[in-house]
Amino acid sequence: MLNNTLKPNFIACDSSLAAADLVLLGIPFDGTVSFRAGSRMGPNAIRSESAGLETYSPYQNSDLTQHAIHDLGDLELPYGNTGRALSIIEATVADLVGMSKKVLCTGGEHLITLPIIKALHAKHPGLHVIQFDAHADLRSDYLGVKLSHATVIRRVWEIVGDNKIWQFGIRSGTREEFAWSAEGHTIMEKFTADSVKKAASVIGDQPVYLTLDIDILDTSVVPGTGTPEPGGLQFNQLLQAIMELSQLNIVGADLVELAPQLDISGASTAVACKLLREIMLLMLSSKLTNQ
Amino acid sequence: MLNNTLKPNFIACDSSLAAADLVLLGIPFDGTVSFRAGSRMGPNAIRSESAGLETYSPYQNSDLTQHAIHDLGDLELPYGNTGRALSIIEATVADLVGMSKKVLCTGGEHLITLPIIKALHAKHPGLHVIQFDAHADLRSDYLGVKLSHATVIRRVWEIVGDNKIWQFGIRSGTREEFAWSAEGHTIMEKFTADSVKKAASVIGDQPVYLTLDIDILDTSVVPGTGTPEPGGLQFNQLLQAIMELSQLNIVGADLVELAPQLDISGASTAVACKLLREIMLLMLSSKLTNQ
Amino acid sequence: MLNNTLKPNFIACDSSLAAADLVLLGIPFDGTVSFRAGSRMGPNAIRSESAGLETYSPYQNSDLTQHAIHDLGDLELPYGNTGRALSIIEATVADLVGMSKKVLCTGGEHLITLPIIKALHAKHPGLHVIQFDAHADLRSDYLGVKLSHATVIRRVWEIVGDNKIWQFGIRSGTREEFAWSAEGHTIMEKFTADSVKKAASVIGDQPVYLTLDIDILDTSVVPGTGTPEPGGLQFNQLLQAIMELSQLNIVGADLVELAPQLDISGASTAVACKLLREIMLLMLSSKLTNQ
Amino acid sequence: MLNNTLKPNFIACDSSLAAADLVLLGIPFDGTVSFRAGSRMGPNAIRSESAGLETYSPYQNSDLTQHAIHDLGDLELPYGNTGRALSIIEATVADLVGMSKKVLCTGGEHLITLPIIKALHAKHPGLHVIQFDAHADLRSDYLGVKLSHATVIRRVWEIVGDNKIWQFGIRSGTREEFAWSAEGHTIMEKFTADSVKKAASVIGDQPVYLTLDIDILDTSVVPGTGTPEPGGLQFNQLLQAIMELSQLNIVGADLVELAPQLDISGASTAVACKLLREIMLLMLSSKLTNQ
Amino acid sequence: MLNNTLKPNFIACDSSLAAADLVLLGIPFDGTVSFRAGSRMGPNAIRSESAGLETYSPYQNSDLTQHAIHDLGDLELPYGNTGRALSIIEATVADLVGMSKKVLCTGGEHLITLPIIKALHAKHPGLHVIQFDAHADLRSDYLGVKLSHATVIRRVWEIVGDNKIWQFGIRSGTREEFAWSAEGHTIMEKFTADSVKKAASVIGDQPVYLTLDIDILDTSVVPGTGTPEPGGLQFNQLLQAIMELSQLNIVGADLVELAPQLDISGASTAVACKLLREIMLLMLSSKLTNQ
Amino acid sequence: MLNNTLKPNFIACDSSLAAADLVLLGIPFDGTVSFRAGSRMGPNAIRSESAGLETYSPYQNSDLTQHAIHDLGDLELPYGNTGRALSIIEATVADLVGMSKKVLCTGGEHLITLPIIKALHAKHPGLHVIQFDAHADLRSDYLGVKLSHATVIRRVWEIVGDNKIWQFGIRSGTREEFAWSAEGHTIMEKFTADSVKKAASVIGDQPVYLTLDIDILDTSVVPGTGTPEPGGLQFNQLLQAIMELSQLNIVGADLVELAPQLDISGASTAVACKLLREIMLLMLSSKLTNQ
Question: What is the number of domains present in chain A?
């Protein structure tokens, strides 16, 4: 009866690392968060609560059990030393990219996107970035700090450059952030995510990174996040927007800023789990490979 | 002053059993739930929190105080012996049916629907079943167990047969469940509940049982449920769908899977209370009697 | 470094009282609430949680830091003596009105609206009242008590008279309340708030008081309120309705019935904070002055 | 099967009113509470959660099922009108006293003790009062209000006079309260309750009222109370103190200030339930009758 | 960097199964619980929260990292079919016993102790059972059901017989349970656990099973349990009692009835984690082997 | 009436900075916490909840209103840059020390003690440190990071040297930490705090810094802390230990590691508030001045 026990992986992510096409990696870092921390608890909560999820998606008519996915567990990271934490993240993702794995990371705060993109950009120099988010995250610095969840997309822009970052659902930021974007540095759709299809057609088969800050969703859908921003998307609106990415070559993705303990009902975590299932299936059905 | 005290019934359900047209029965059973239990607390929470509800519905321009409703309290059920619990439920409902009462049950988990329908089907052999739910509940078995909240509608189908079960809002299940339904065993509308009016016109004046799994609602509306499934209906969408049933002969109904302690704000319970008020008024305004 | 510390004001409300155009006043009173108390905690929670809010509104392209707003703190009020508490509120608001300040109050329960309006009506005899609310609050009395959160708009009507009270989003009340309104005493839009623009055009440049009971929003958006009433507005629907007031002369306003501890996620409080920011900017951009 | 349902009484309190020796009465009033309200939810929570309690006490080797106890339900009280609420309480208790019932009330806030004692004192002019409490409650007034949970024992003293009030466990108050007590008005044991036995021997067979403010217990034992005061008794210390009352003629009692929703674990409510069981058994085993 | 990730085992339980002396097994079953379910969440919460625990015990001056312990994960069990769930548990433990492993199980409800003891008793016919618990669990049946968390020690007695079961801390039960124990069937210390040392000296080097129902602790220490029973032990009292077992030959043990979601602070789970560390170290330092 | 409003200071800390003998400073930093963050919310919660505290201490027969205390508010600190945050803290405290103020800081995590002591040690070279804590905090580094809440007392030792640090209540750490202390670097009492009086007599009138990690208290008393460690002191045990310091010259103090949102009952915060009141009164009654 000994093989009757459940492995604490994300549901159906039981492939070996060697055989996997996609690797799920937890990055429990929230060291630069200025308001309410807690997203460090995200990866573990997502893994645990995935037990309540079906492996089959009636939206895509596809099943996680048909794919080879490996759950690598969570990175062990030092708090209080942001630079070192980012280096560990970058090195780990670089290893996975070197093995030609697609990578899906669970945060953790939004700053983790920076080292992931660094590792991916080294392989995919023309990388596009699609950002679903309530916040622009385009500050030049935050209280004098350059590496922060509030500056992360500005830092990403320093890597990928103009016309590569597509921002959807943005409804919060400083006047300066909106103005800087409007100067042509990023392509931003405020408040909603209705133009995803158009973005996808522009991107075509160029490699894409998807960063999903879960606070793009309305606070009613995801109260469990560090900086709740009312007025966001409903779940089905976001799901539909994500489905528009089905023809893209998504070489990496993340889902960040879930702070599960802020929503003790577990609903926020359930939202994250379902989005991850759909993103996994999307990444694995991409017509283009990661090589 | 002694008659100044409040009886802890659901609000305005103060009729005697003998005089009542409708009986409210709490069934605090959640013994087969596989993920998060807690719906056993549903009936009691609903009764307590109904104190915050108005008796008057501006939607139907009708008032609970105009009707004779009896709150029978909660069944006392053994945990760990599913068969025996179901027998007690069935016998109790059969007694009420024998007294020509309409029956509205509060769960508890979805499996309680099976013995209720058994008791009602004995009197109404052509019974239709309208199911509002996120989950298909059509598994043949669940980990080898035939009687489970995940198999309950399959068991109901064994009683009522093909073309009698109308499923709305279904957005979760195995590939097999969706396929089995599509073979013609149930009439299923995936994701939404837009075709209720059409169903109602087909059913006409045949007797109907309404089973409402509260997780048909979005997790933002009802985080207090055992298996939260994002992407569901908004409250007003469900309310509108229920209003489409106003011409039907609803001989029994249930509201299941509220797990009140998972939503400590009380909002999920308030949703259940308001839905119950509307269903009560609907059942009591039905043009056809239960005889 | 001593000036490096944060003052616990609502964000950016750091003007002196003398220089301020708008004064924010907390009124932590919930002494007549019949179901679940707790709105007394509202003002303090709003102030604390405003730290997570941007000062800039992308909706109005305006910034709190451009305006002179003073946070006066919270009134200290006796519980158990409603009349005395109301007198203190009225006297304080009268002082502010005497200084030609616009006043924005955070509750607390809805009854606080009565003394505020008394103070404002003394200066603005033709005052209109725009009410966003789930509940009509038009009872003549509640369990024999005249001064109650369930009777407050009826009391307000005794001051302002017929055709001055505009009610939006009402979805709960007794049969008598709806009937009394329909006799012509108030202008009520049930369930929704689609006719705000029309109301605004009728009101024109007459002075207006805005009372916003946060339970006009759906329970999914604001579970943190004393009497949760499902079926309300989404955040963006309310925001749009408020934007329709931009041409009005709003001389005073309140936001009431937030019970922050009922929503430990903080999402309900975040909703209140964002609404307050938008209302402040709206009041300060009004073309007409308060004089 | 219809008699299989559970009545929502406090466990084993199923006697008729006529046959009962002891009556349990819920008084859900917290209208004068200055800090955190919520004790109005106490009576209902106690009743619900008593389902988890055994009827048998191994401490007293006695069983609730051996006694005739009636659960009268909860009083319906107006908030916002303290005087009227107190009148209803007093009249109800007076009726019960007139029927020669022993009375055990569940609060609600501590002010409810005042009208209960008024009703009892009319019959028992030499009534002693034993108070277990963290707070002295001896203020002359509170923010100018005479009737308050912070003044209640001062008001009781105005009825029963000097040398009748025995205070145990007091660890919070103003300097004035402690000084006033020390002038000889009440007999106070600060911090602990070690002298109960001695008090009991002084009181002998004179009639006694027991008022138990649950915050006498340490905040670790009862976090669910409105004004948590660290440094209190452990459960077993309080239980032992209560057992010292076994030879007294307790004609009435209350347990107040449980705010169940502040402790969502339910542990605070479980503490209240167990204390009530022990107090009931104690009152019913008293050698002297209530006549 | 790929080996930098954390495996989600209980801290330091990273041995292979083959090499392990002790095996940790999660049994997430709570199917017979009559009041509040939720202990099924225990094993997973314990594993996650063990990250906050040091591996070193200053009490025993010993470290988990010095030992070979395997975390087998959680059993997958059907709900709604108690007999089948118990069979799976028994078979799994029997396999481990067959491999000469010491077994430490985390519940789950107390009924899981029955199949574990069945498997161990087959190898150790003279097995003693030491029970730390608030409840006697000696009912003959519970609402007619023989297999229940309220009857489990009675069922265990049917296996091990008189004079083998040592009960400590018992403070709740029916009159019949206490009487039946007093007939000589079990050795019971009511309320406290002061006689453990004496029991240990009687048992000597006979094989012992330790079953620890976490509700032996006071509700202030472990609010997170299904049937909270005030008046229990403090943590240090229990720890001291456990230390008295250091010379015994403990061949198996369990820790049951932690319901982690009932204590969202995580303190209850931290208590369980620390007790498990101490029990592991105790079992592994036993002078006698399991063979 | 405008001066009727409450300033959101810690209760009775309304002196001007210039006139104050003692300054209360909030330091909401938790950037190096490895397990559960949240102590950044401590200072604000303490300030808010102090409204439920009496200003008078019956333990010391002294009243906060008799003293001049200034509440400076909270420092604004960058997250993600530990060095810079520590510099701001040190500079601020140095300014206060330069003004000859006694300083009492509320955390925040334990690392904040380091810059505070740096600033104080510059003025008081022979400074002793009394630490009440569950954790030794003596690691040389934590995951390679030198500045961490788990290494802070080791860093403090590098400033103050051997025989200056008195540790009480320590019950968690690595084997190495206990060994390093035993080499003579710190004076440690494991598990309890019974030797405080003796320490006080050794210290005499030398300047002392008091650092109080609230997790020295048992998890039942303070579940609201980041790394809950069962087996700690009861509140009254800690209070008694603190009272033993009454003759010392306490020139500065802190209370750290309260994570208020982890204990939504508010009891943990109430414990912190009461301890702060007693420490304030103790510091202000010290016979020796800070000059």
Answer: 1
